[in-house]
Design brief:
- By secondary structure, the protein is an alpha/beta fold.
- The protein folds into 2 domains: 2-20 and 300-408, Aspartate Aminotransferase, domain 1; 31-291, Aspartate Aminotransferase, domain 2.
- The protein is 44% helix and 17% strand.
- The protein is built from 14 helices and 16 strands.
- The chain has an 8-stranded mixed β-sheet, sandwiched between helices. Strands 12-13-16-15 form a 4-stranded antiparallel β-sheet, with no helix packed on it. It has a two-stranded parallel sheet with strand order 1-14.
- Helix 1 runs parallel beside helix 13 (349-359), helix 5 crosses helix 10 and helix 12 packs parallel to helix 14.
- The longest helix is centred in the C-terminal third of the chain and has 22 residues, at 301-322.
- The chain binds pyridoxal-5'-phosphate.
- The site of pyridoxal-5'-phosphate has 14 residues, from helix 5.
Length: 409
């Protein structure tokens, strides 16, 4: 990803189809600061304490698990049909911290392997590599994970004496592919977790960004056997610098012969990583949740509609400029920020530079998201979240000229 940032710096006039950031047009930081005051007022009314007391409490070290767990339990029940006790919730510094906490709490690199869908968000795979975990890569498709490949990896990991303990997946509008895991595939994955005794880390960063079809229930909400640990990021639905995510655990697990509550253990790990998640940020989210009756569905309507228009602009431009090229294919994502484009030539870093220099558009090779750098050679990830529809049209027109130039060679 450093490579893409460098390309952006080198070719500042190029439009970037590589950035999967949310559009800052929808951030309202002034309103967020007002939400902090609103939260202080809520707490004063609720507790009967003075403003000075509430403020000093918010300024103090706080609970590792979080201070808005009750609000988040209501929110998870309403928006995700996930029913957890507030004490089984941990508020983390973004989904990124949650991944690290869950992984290191549940799995030991000397005793366990982990499985990651492939291709995948690099935040999880890169951290797992840094922390020396053995990783089984499980191909992901629009129909869900390849369960026979998973069975094979489970057997291999077991034979090495390092059984798979945790599987990481992004079922909703996956980063990078845009895939949405069908309901039957979610249920089949849960059955495999039960059969082979592993946990599922469900990462939901894009779930609100649904543009067509019914929203599919989260894996956690379908899970009757407590196999899933749910992570919901607020970076895309509010703004990334808020650095907040919610973890819903609720299961006990076996550790060194003892049965422990997972939420307690994650919170203990967190206490030694970041002590607690900033209370000011939690207060802001707490007031957003209270002011919106514990649901962010209506609250997010405008930005979801805006992102849907961007997807439409990208699909229309692809059709207009590449629709008559049988060798170029793409899938229409039902939601999220990304779309996969298949091209009939090998896509390497040199192509990114060539296209940026000559056609003034930057894209992201799909191979960047493959676990061992193997795969996705003929694919590009196109992000439509952070450009206006007119810019998307221009960018796709430029990209199509580059692709057509490669087809002629
Ligand atoms: C699938 C996925 N999970 C997690 C994150 C990071 O989330 P957070 O900002 O909450 O750490 C991203 C960021 O792009 C992502 O794409």
């Amino acid at each position: 990803m450093g490579f893409l940032n460098e390309a952006l710096l080198r070719f500042p006039e190029a439009i970037s189809l590589a950035s999967g950031r949310p559009s800052a047009k929808y951030f309202d930081l002034r309103e967020s600061l007002e939400k902090f005051d609103a939260y202080v007022n809520y707490r004063m009314v609720e507790t009967g304490k003075s403003e000075a007391f509430i403020l000093s409490d918010l300024g103090q070290y706080n609970r590792a698990k979080g201070i808005i767990n009750a609000e988040l339990a209501k929110f998870l029940a309403k928006d995700e049909q996930i029913h957890v006790n507030p004490e089984d919730i941990i508020v983390t510094v973004g989904a990124q911290e949650a991944m690290m906490l869950i992984l290191t709490t549940l799995c030991h690199p000397a005793h366990h392997s982990i499985a990651i869908e492939n291709p995948s968000y690099i935040g999880m795979s890169t951290y797992a590599k840094i922390a020396d975990y053995e990783i089984a890569s499980i191909p992901t498709t629009p129909e869900g994970l390849d369960l026979s490949a998973l069975e094979e990896s489970i057997a291999i990991a077991k034979s090495k004496g390092k059984p798979i303990r945790l599987l990481y997946t992004i079922p909703d509008y996956q980063n990078p592919t845009g895939n949405l895991m069908p309901l039957a595939a979610r249920k089949a994955l849960l059955a495999k977790a039960e059969e082979h005794d592993f946990y599922i880390l469900e990462d939901n960063a894009y779930g609100y960004f649904n543009y067509e079809g019914e929203k599919i229930p989260s894996i956690k909400s379908l899970d009757e056997k407590h196999r899933t640990i749910y992570v919901g990021s607020f970076s895309k639905i509010l703004f990334p610098s808020l650095r907040l995510a919610v973890v819903a655990a609720g299961q006990s697990f076996e550790f060194e012969g003892k049965t422990l509550a997972l939420s307690e253990q994650i919170s203990t790990t967190k206490a030694y990583v970041s002590l607690n998640t900033p209370s000011i940020n939690q207060a802001i989210l707490g007031a957003y949740l209270r002011d919106n009756d514990f649901s962010l569905v209506q609250f997010s309507e405008e930005k979801v509609a805006g992102c849907s228009e961007k997807r439409a602009a990208m699909l229309a431009a692809l059709e207009k400029y590449l629709g008559n090229q049988a060798q170029v294919k793409w899938r229409k994502p039902a939601g999220g920020f990304f779309l996969t484009l298949e091209v009939p030539f090998k896509v390497e870093e040199a192509n990114v530079i060539e296209c940026a220099e000559q056609y003034k558009v930057i894209f992201c090779p799909m191979s960047f998201f493959y676990l061992d750098g193997i795969g996705g050679d003929h694919e590009i990830r196109l992000a439509f979240s952070n450009l206006e529809p007119a810019e998307i049209t221009t960018a796709i027109e430029r990209l199509s000229k580059y692709i057509l130039s490669k087809l002629k060679v």
